[in-house]
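Deliverable D4.2, example record:
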Amino acid sequence: MAIRKDGVKSREKLLIAASEVFAEKGYRDTAVAEICRRAGSNVAAVNYHFGSKDELYATVWRNAFEQAMQVYPPDGALPNDAPAEKRLHALIHSSLHQILDDGRLGRSGQILLHEMAEPTDVIEKILHDSIRSLRQRTEQIIRELLGPQASEQDLRFCELSVVHQCFAIGFAKGRNKLPPFLKSDKPLLEFIDELADHITAFSLAGIAAVRRKA
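Output generated by the structure prediction step:
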């Protein structure tokens, strides 16, 4: 029993260390040796528990994404029949938390940013399956706001505009710091609330303009 408990503990330490390093450096720049050093394990432990660096990466992403979704649900605990404007705000608020959270709950967003900058095929299917429901939710909300007369291109352009406002702050963000032009003396959570309000208002105005044009 003691051996089994030690094995579980060793695996958990590897997952924690790996999530930190992968979030900081991405898949390609992460060395298994560094993960093991932070976890206090030897290199053989990765193969023993996960079989390979690829499988460790996939497990880290899946766990990080599921944890973030539980704490920062994209529906904001709103009912399905809530106004589309409020559902859009909840989705944006959730996305910003995942990208800007400096702790373990922000690691899925940070790993996703690395994947966008330097795509790998290691978690391609897992990533696609994980974010598919988020994309469907985003499309449904935007389509509702645009109205039935909007074209498929209108929908795609609006989706691109909304989503990338959230990702842009992640790319601009330095290591645990907001970019100088967004420097704020307010606590991070308060800053995220304000930024979510702004992106929502900006997006709603843009979507309304596209709807009028359509």
